[in-house]
Write a structure and sequence with these properties.
Number of domains: 2
Helix content: 55-70%
Number of helices: 8
Distance between the termini: 49 Å
Shape: rod-shaped
Order of helices and strands: HHHHHHHH
Radius of gyration: 23 Å
Length: 141
């Protein structure tokens, strides 16, 4: 595995301090901060201790940087939990919830009602917590 010192020339090409200040994603900020320290000539072990990550993470970031440049340090899209419903289904779901609300006495629906609506209309299975979070999110828009 190559040491950070082998990347010294390439590391000097980018302004990681500026990238750190401009980054909005916390993981990107952490990576750019690590590279600020690497630019200063610190070892991967020292940098890992400074930013409180495993040394293998710093080496992985170095490999990504060598292969893809600064873009290799950025957070990649498509990570995390995928949406239960598509955008068009969300709009339809919002209208269905509002319609359900109007048919109830006092306009009160509960999480179990939302859960049944998702299962019946979209044939999707989810937890009660997710159904409540979904309705809270949609109605806040």
């Amino acid at each position: 595995m190559a040491s950070p010192r082998n990347y010294a020339d390439k590391l000097q090409l980018d302004d990681f301090d500026q990238l750190f200040r401009e980054a909005t994603h916390p993981k990107e900020k952490l990576r750019f901060l690590a590279f600020v320290h690497l630019q200063d000539g610190q070892s991967a072990r020292t940098v890992a201790n400074t930013v409180q990550v495993d040394q293998s993470s710093v080496h992985r970031w170095l490999r990504n940087y060598q292969a893809k440049g600064v873009d290799g340090l950025r957070e990649q899209p498509g990570r995390g939990r995928k949406a239960l419903l598509t955008d068009s289904e969300l709009q339809d779901f919002r209208l269905a919830v509002l319609e359900l609300q109007q048919t109830r006495d006092g306009g009160v629906i509960i999480g179990q009602d939302v859960l049944q609506l998702i299962e019946r209309k979209y044939n999707k299975v989810c937890s009660l917590k997710i159904s409540v979070n979904c309705i809270t999110f949609l109605l806040s828009k």
